[in-house]
Every structure is written in C-alpha cells, then in structure tokens.
Specification:
Elements: E1 2-10, E2 16-17, E3 21-24, E4 30-38, H1 49-52, E5 57-63, E6 69-71, E7 75-78, E8 81-86, E9 98-107, E10 115-117, E11 121-128, H2 181-222, H3 224-275, E12 278-282, E13 287-288, E14 295-297, E15 301-306, E16 310-313, E17 316-319, E18 325-335, E19 342-350, E20 353-362, E21 366-377, E22 383-390, E23 397-398, E24 406-411
Parallel strand pairs: 1-4, 3-11
Antiparallel strand pairs: 1-2, 4-8, 5-6, 5-7, 5-9, 7-8, 9-10, 9-11, 12-15, 12-24, 13-23, 14-22, 16-17, 17-22, 18-21, 18-23, 18-24, 19-20, 19-22
Length: 412
C-alpha cells in the first residue's frame, strides 16, 4: 500500500498541516499517517496530542467541495500517530474534485466511550483531475462539461422525435442512464423542427396580415361615406361618455382622496409610535479591568434619547411596554500602554445571555471593538447590559468618551 505522512499542528481555532495532501481522481488505497502536535485549548501541556489524551483510536471527518460529509473507518493509534486510508470510493467521481477540509476525532477505545475532536484543518486535501483516465463517464448525474463524451448508440434503437399527434416524445432521464448520440440528436432534431415551424408560421402570418390590410383598404374605399357617418356617431358617443366619466371620476376621486388621507394619518401615527423608542448611552467614568474575566460596564450616561419605552436604570437599560423588537449596536474603546499582542472583547447581554460578541487581537495604545448592529426580539422587562473583557492580561482601560464607548438601542 502507498504511504505518506503529515504533521498537523493543533491550534486554538484551527489546525495547520505542514503541506497539503494532493491526490488525483481515481487514486485509491493510500495510507496517510498523521502526527498531531501542539497545544490546543482543551489540553494542558505541549507535545504529542494523541499521547496527551491517551487516544487509542481515531476517525477522519471530511467536508467535501460539494458540501457533503465523509467519515472514515475507525483506525488504531500507534506510537502517538494515527493512520487513515483513502479508498477508491472516496475520490472516484468528478463532483469529488476540489479542496477538502477535515477534522480528526480521537477515541479512548474501539467502543468509542470517550471522544475528543481537534479543530479543523482548512483545505488540507486537494483532489485534482488527472490528464487522462480510463473511466471517462457520460452518465446522468456524473458527467461534467469539459470531462465527458457522447457515446455512439450501438443498439440502433429508433427514437422518434414526435408522436403521431405531433407531440414531442420526452426523454426520461434516470440516474446512471448513458448519454448517447441518438438521445442527444433527438433533442437537436426537436429544436431544429420547432425553429423551422416558427419561421414558416412567421411567413404565413406576415402574408395573412398583408392580405387583411389590403382587404381593409379596399373596403374603406368602397364604403367611405358609411365609414365617415359611423365615425361621427362614434365621436358623439365618445363625448357623451367622457362627460359621464368626468362626473363619475370626480366622485370617485373625492372618495379615494378621503381614503388615502385616512391611511396616511394611520401611517403617520404608526411611524410616530416607532420613533418614540430610541436611546444611546455611555459610561461617565473609565473602567480598568481587574482580571481576564468578563466584567460589566456601568452604563450611567444618556447621550441622546427619544420616547419613554426604553429606560436607563442602575447601569442597564430596561425594555418598556409595547416593544417587541429592537436594533442594538455599540462600541468599546480600549486604551493601554502595553506593546504585547492582546485579545480584547466586547459583549451586549440581554438578561443573562449575550446576543452580540466581538473581539480583536492587536497591538496598540487605543483600540475599538465594534459591536455590529443586530435586530433582536425582546419583551417588556428585559434588561440590556454592556460587558468587556481583556482576555490575555488584566489592566486594560475602557475609555469613557461618548465617541469611544457607547451602546445604541432603537425600537423597530
């Protein structure tokens, strides 16, 4: 069996492979030996991850380019390494070409009582198309443009394009049907016949229209006096109808105008009610973190507001009656004199759960964590709070300027 090996370094959010695994469609029975090293957040010491969790078995989970998932057979771990086999069935079709991401699951035994999953390796597999292959396919659901060929039908089966009534004989394609020359030519014949009939119909219609126009001209010449009399009578009827229409239209327009004014008044009242709910708040004093845990910021300053259905009380905002949905956004401005990389986070909580969270990892003396606008369903009495965390080290300061740290809530 063909064998290769890779080293996967386990990170906090994802893993890094030392080099991608490049295979070609139709490759099979290839052993891939993975050695997992690094310090992932769920482990406490550096070194070989398989050894550190006492794993005895592993499983490869693949996410294919088509969005489907594959799960390998359970494989035993030896000397801190796990070996998986890429089988023919895994990469033998056109739709299976492209980049694969994967994760490795580690188990304590073949019974899989205990399991741990390492972060994903993005685009770890690259499955390509060979320059030539013995199994070029022209099957329904498998053939692709630029890769398939039309097969010549050896059965000599007659495929009439239309039935005796002139209706098209529809081709019923089933899964894994062979795409043949006769079936494709039947479709071409139908399109050609329809196009020819359309051209013929166009010529016939033009000839008919020309004849009708000619006959009409001759009739008008012979009956011009009668036509003129009819036109005069028609004009009189039109004028009478116009006057009646004006009278009816004025009455209808008055009624419609009144209806529109009522609707506009209702819309104005509805918009006015919605505009009542708006509040933007900040903090009056800067806040310096004392730990690397989440800490609540004391919202005690109203920057601007409108309406009375959002209220600032004891460091948080209370949702009033009649409010079912709000739009929340904000920002947390940090200052620090450290030059080391650090992770700073901001949260918006409703009651005891956060609904908005964002973080940045950077170096600088002034940093802003944007809390992206989000529409949220709420109910009367819900409490909205603002939290911050300096995740790496303590001692960062949340700035109290209105343009730096704020939270905005709008009734929608």
């Amino acid at each position: 069996m063909i064998h290769t090996n890779r080293i996967v370094t386990v990170g906090e959010q994802e893993c890094i492979i030392d080099r991608p695994i490049v295979l070609y469609r139709g490759d099979r029975e290839v052993e891939i030996e993975f050695t997992l090293v690094g310090n992932e957040f769920m482990f406490s010491e550096e070194g070989n991850v398989i050894k550190s969790v006492n794993a005895s078995h592993g499983q490869l989970v693949l996410n294919t380019p088509s969005g489907e998932n594959m799960f390998s057979e359970l494989a035993e771990c030896h000397e801190g390494k796990v070996v998986f086999v890429v089988t023919k069935e895994m990469i033998d079709e056109f739709i299976e070409m492209g980049f694969y991401s994967f994760q490795i699951r580690l188990y304590d035994s073949a019974e899989m009582k205990s399991r741990v999953t390492i972060p994903p390796v993005m685009t770890g597999f690259d499955i390509r198309n060979p320059i030539a292959a013995e199994d070029e396919t022209n099957l329904v659901d498998q053939g692709l443009v630029d890769y398939s060929r039309i097969f010549k039908d050896q059965s000599n089966e007659e495929l009439p394009t239309f039935d005796w009534q002139g209706n098209y004989n529809k081709t019923e394609w089933a899964h894994h049907d062979v795409i043949t020359e006769n079936k494709m030519n039947k479709i071409e014949d139908a399109l050609y016949s329809i196009n020819a009939d359309a051209k013929k119909f166009d010529v016939e219609m033009r000839n008919t229209l020309n004849q009708v126009t000619k006959d009409a001209d001759e009739y008008i010449k012979e009956h011009i006096a009668e036509v003129e009399q009819d036109v005069e009578e028609f004009e009189r009827n039109i004028n009478t109808g116009v006057e009646m229409f004006k009278t009816d239209t004025n009455a209808a327009m008055t009624a419609y105008k009144n209806e529109v004014n009522e609707k506009l008044e209702d819309m104005e009242n509805e918009i006015s009610a919605k505009l009542n709910g708006f509040i933007e708040c900040g903090i009056s004093a800067s806040h310096t973190t004392t730990s690397t845990q989440i800490e609540q910021l004391n919202i005690d300053t109203i920057i601007c507001s409108r309406g009375d259905n959002l209220t600032l009380i004891d460091g948080h905002i209370i949702v009033g009656s009649g409010v079912n949905r709000i739009r929340v956004s904000g920002q947390i401005g940090w200052t620090s004199d450290t030059v080391a990389p650090h992770v700073l986070e901001g949260f918006v909580y409703i009651n005891n759960s956060y609904v908005i969270r964002n973080a940045i990892t950077t170096i600088g003396d002034y940093l802003g964590v944007t809390l992206t606008s989000k529409i949220i369903d709420v109910q009367e009495g819900d409490m909205i709070r603002l939290y911050a965390r300096s995740k790496t080290i303590e001692g960062f300061t949340v700035h109290n300027e209105a343009s730096s740290t704020w939270i905005c809530i709008e009734v929608v």
